[in-house]
Specification:
728 residues; mainly beta; nine-stranded mixed β-sheet; 46 strands
């Protein structure tokens, strides 16, 4: 075994340049039970021990000792960690559900950049109770800076919905706690060959001090997803694993409608997926009669403006490798938005007959090919409301390893089957140019092709970013032509020109007691139409005050401008044509998330479309041990407008009980007073691996007053199983 670590902690372009080691090769497999100190095989592997804090004391050694060992066989990557703790009785485990955020737990995570492209990676983690956390990281976890609605799995970012087949076991004792990971190489992607090098970093969270420490030191403002400044692991001799998985499912479902006339029906169905590794880095997925019965329902939203609401994708088939197909600006201009497949414009389900996907890498070139077919949908009279459609997406982009740069293109197509003139196509080219470790230029240019539209069918975006040592300075411009029509994409609004900028500083002042940092910043975005009328302007001036405990207060002011060109309604109150210039106060409160009970509030008080509003978004979380978690939500808007007043609210409660890390009971109850809909979604899951297993789902929806008859309810029982047919 050859092992060397050379530290280089500095705030410049050479950060972690020489931080590297060669991995150990094991002749026998360790027993995965979490017992590291008592297993002789790990004594032969020299540990990594040098972790440095990023908070609360930047650059200082971690306050508790950590020993990390990493090794591999021809089939499996192993990571073993011993997290020593001087007060093991204070170890915090807040949740045992798979993929729950680990930042408030005593936890350990590691990321591997298997293609060494310094842009993408696979993230794994656990807490002291052995919870499983995994995610795909695209574009170093970065999305568009001006839109907070983006969730992982779309344009860039962190896709926590990716679930691989792997194993982790933990052990707690007087020493603290330890964890043992076994990651089958066929569960991740990489380039085969001799003496391969990967990017790698390790993270430990120590809850009692709200402490976060890393092996590869990071500039202020970054986290483990910043793989361009990760360390390196070398000496990997890898062969392409054979991988063929067949994942069939079967389900039975009972649906009862109580209004307008009572009727019920039962049905059963089956389908499944096949996964085959064409190479170690390229995977073929095929799906038949695709079903998403186990997916949690959407969170209710009420539109208080005149533009489109964004509902994130939650279906696992489309979320896997979703970042590979993404071009655009998250939640604002998405050239491919997978929710257009299998979900109608009114949210109704459209049956998916099946399809296939090829995704992965050939060398440093990313490949994404998707082809799906949806069935026709009749209306109540039996006439065809939605015809059969074919959706196809082709995406290629090339990463320039070590440069944080890429160039690529995408083609998106929808074709009505049997109707020649029913189609929509979108073409685009995009790219990124990294300027050292600190700056990046990015952008895309796109054109749509729709019968009957021949002018202004373009869209483009350019964005410049400086991000280093607590500073974020961004400037961008987006333009969407009035005729641009991505029918398999998403537009928050059409026909606009938008400049935007952000200046943000994360600052750690000294001698301020328990105050950890302040984050003064200013941002702006403005939307003009092609008649040079400004429809929206938003100038935000704010400061975040953050304490070591995690307690935060944000104090800001917003200067807004809205030009209404056509009347629209908010909760049956009409907003007339006009120009409206207002100011509003913005206040955010976040209590210590390490506590059993913590609270978040976001409040706006100020002018709104010629009147005023008080908007309060509240979320309270309560946990009992590591098994029971509940979250209550109340979003309230009190509007006083020239044509009338409106009180609009959404209330909800999310409850979860984890019997084990792989067995859970979850429910989501929601109500809003505009559509007057109460919905209940309850799910029981007993997972085997990679999100397969037994699911029982109950959905109840009613649109009348409380305690009246239900509109409809359904009960679904679904079972899926993963057969690994090749284990070579």
């Amino acid at each position: 075994m050859v092992f060397s670590i050379v530290a280089a902690h500095s705030q410049n372009n050479n950060l972690n340049k020489n931080l590297s080691f060669n991995i150990s090769s094991l002749k026998e497999e360790p027993l995965i039970d979490g017992n590291i100190l008592g297993e002789e095989i790990w004594n032969s592997v020299e540990p990594i021990t040098d972790l440095k804090q990023i908070k609360p004391d930047y650059g200082a050694p971690a306050t508790e000792n950590t020993e990390i060992r990493i090794a591999y066989t021809s089939k499996t990557l192993y990571v073993a960690v011993v997290c020593y703790d001087s007060a093991p009785e204070k170890i915090v485990v807040s949740d045992s559900r798979r993929d729950t955020d680990l930042s408030d737990d005593d936890s350990f995570l590691f990321i591997v950049d298997t293609f060494n492209d310094e842009q993408n990676g696979f993230l794994f983690g656990t807490n002291a109770d052995g919870m499983e956390y995994d995610a795909q990281i695209n574009n170093e976890g970065q999305g568009n800076f001006s839109n907070s609605r983006q969730q992982g799995g779309a344009v860039g970012g962190t896709n926590i919905n990716w679930d691989a087949a792997w194993e982790v076991k933990t052990e707690k004792g007087d020493f603290g706690w330890s964890a043992e990971f076994a990651i089958p190489l066929r569960s991740i992607r990489f380039n085969g060959g001799e003496n391969q090098s990967w990017g790698i970093n390790f993270q430990r969270n120590i809850s009692k001090r709200t402490e976060t420490a890393y092996w590869a030191n990071l500039p202020l403002g970054f986290d483990i997803k910043r793989v361009s400044v990760a360390g390196k692991i070398g000496g990997l001799n890898l062969k392409s694993p054979k991988n063929l998985k067949v994942i069939p499912y079967g389900l039975v479902q009972t649906i009862q409608n109580n209004q307008p006339s009572k009727n019920s029906n039962s049905n059963s169905d089956f389908g499944g997926e096949v996964k085959y590794s064409l190479t170690s880095a390229l995977t073929l997925d095929m799906t038949y009669n695709t079903d998403f019965a186990q997916v949690e329902v959407d969170e209710q939203q009420i539109n208080l403006d005149r533009f489109n609401l964004f509902f994130p994708e939650k279906r696992l088939f489309f979320l896997e490798n979703a970042g590979q197909f993404s071009v655009g600006s998250p939640g604002e201009v998405e050239l491919f938005f997978s929710r257009r497949i299998g979900i109608g414009n009114n949210g109704s389900l459209v049956p998916i007959i099946g399809g296939s996907r090829v995704s992965g890498k050939v060398g440093q070139t990313n490949i994404g090919l998707l082809n799906m077919f949806t069935d026709e949908v009749p209306n109540q009279s039996g006439e065809i409301d939605i015809i059969k459609n074919n959706y196809s997406v082709g995406r290629v982009n090339h990463d320039f390893a070590g440069k944080r740069s890429s160039i690529g293109g995408v083609f998106v197509n929808r074709s009505g089957i049997g109707v020649d003139s029913d189609y929509n196509r979108v073409f685009a080219m995009d790219g990124k140019l990294g300027i050292g470790k600190k700056s990046q230029l990015s952008g895309y240019i796109s054109k749509s092709n729709t019968p009957g539209i021949s002018m202004n069918d373009h869209a483009f975006n350019f964005l410049a970013v400086y991000n280093w040592n607590g500073w974020r300075i961004n400037a961008g411009y987006t333009e969407v032509g009035e005729g641009f029509n991505p029918e398999v994409g998403f537009l928050s609004r059409s026909g606009f020109k938008k400049p935007e900028f952000l200046i943000f500083k994360q600052w750690r002042p000294k001698n301020t007691g328990k105050l950890l940092e302040v984050r003064p910043h200013i941002s702006y975005r403005g939307y003009w139409n092609f008649q040079n009328i400004q429809e929206t302007g938003f100038l935000h001036v704010d400061n975040h005050w953050v304490w070591e405990s995690g307690f935060e207060i944000h104090t800001g002011i917003n200067f807004t401008r809205e030009t209404v060109l056509s009347p629209f309604s908010i909760s049956n109150v009409t907003v007339d044509i006009g120009e409206f210039n207002h100011q509003e106060l913005q206040f955010v409160l976040i209590t210590n998330p390490n506590k059993k009970l913590y609270f978040q509030n976001r409040t706006y008080i100020g002018g709104y479309f010629g009147g005023s509003r008080i908007s309060s978004r509240n979320k309270a979380n309560f946990r009992l041990g590591d098994k029971f978690n509940t979250e209550g939500v109340l979003n309230y808007n009190r509007l006083k407008l020239p044509n009338g007043n409106a009180n609009v609210f959404i209330s909800g409660a999310r409850l979860s009980y984890s019997f084990t890390p792989r067995m859970f009971l979850q429910s989501l109850v929601q109500y809003n007073n505009v559509s007057n809909i109460t919905s209940v979604n309850a799910r029981f899951g007993w997972l085997r691996n990679a999100n397969t297993g037994l699911f029982v789902v109950i959905n109840i929806i009613k649109d009348t007053d409380y305690f009246d008859a239900l509109n409809n309810q359904s009960i679904t029982i679904k079972y899926s199983y993963q057969f690994d047919l090749l284990r070579k």
